[in-house]
Specification:
Blueprint: H1 2-26, H2 33-40, H3 44-50, H4 54-66, H5 68-78, H6 83-100, H7 102-113, H8 122-149, H9 158-178, H10 185-200
Length: 206
């Protein structure tokens, strides 16, 4: 029984890996379920045993990879240090992880460029947007704490700081993907983090 369960889990992983690869290479719309089954080395019946349809495969990928960025942010915070040191690390650490993890980078590229305006994925995208909104509020709350502690210029607004921070991260990722990963994301993130942290430090705008 245990071996059967392990084999089922291995098949599921193979199907997800094949789906990610083909979605990334061909785009979501152009990828057929039969292609995914073939790439994973299983029958269509085996695929349907694990996943209802193509959208179910995509949503499962989204659930699997969706928390990885947040996990890197949490790890960066847990390392401790001053408010601005943590701020720099939160900017850099998730982007280093993205650069070093090929599957995560492929997933990120898939979400950004290959699943736009697909009707069957609209619910998944709405969920993503809701999660992004909640994360933005959390970041704004973090900057609010920094302002209250005197670690961030009191003239700045938490919501604007959060939007700027996220825009810097997302902009670097987008540019890195568009430029076919032709520059060091880690180095670019470190520069952006330094510029941002220096700009929000007390006295920087005086």
């Amino acid at each position: 029984m245990r071996r059967t369960q392990e084999e089922a889990e291995a098949t599921r992983r193979d199907l997800l890996a094949a789906a990610l690869q083909l979605f990334s290479e061909r785009g979501y719309a152009a990828t057929r379920l039969g292609d995914i089954a073939t790439a994973a080395g299983v029958t269509r019946g085996a695929l349907y045993h694990h996943f209802e349809n193509k959208a179910h495969l995509y949503r499962t990928l989204l659930q699997g990879f969706g928390g990885e960025f947040s996990a890197q942010v949490a790890a960066a915070i847990q390392e401790g240090g001053s408010f601005l040191q943590i701020c720099r690390r939160v900017m850099v650490k998730p982007l280093v992880y993205l650069e070093q993890n090929q599957e995560f980078a492929a997933f990120y590229e898939l979400v950004q460029f290959h699943t736009v305006d697909i009707p069957e994925l609209r619910d998944a995208h709405r969920q993503q947007m809701a999660q992004a909104g909640a994360e933005l509020e959390n970041i704004a709350g973090y900057f609010g704490v920094g302002i209250a502690q005197g670690a961030v210029r009191a003239t700045l607004k938490p919501q604007e700081l959060a939007r700027t921070f996220v825009a810097l991260q997302n902009g670097l990722i987008h540019l890195w993907l568009v430029r076919e990963r032709s520059f060091s994301l880690e180095e670019a993130a470190a520069t952006a983090a330094e510029v941002f942290a220096t700009g929000i430090a007390p006295g920087a705008g005086d």
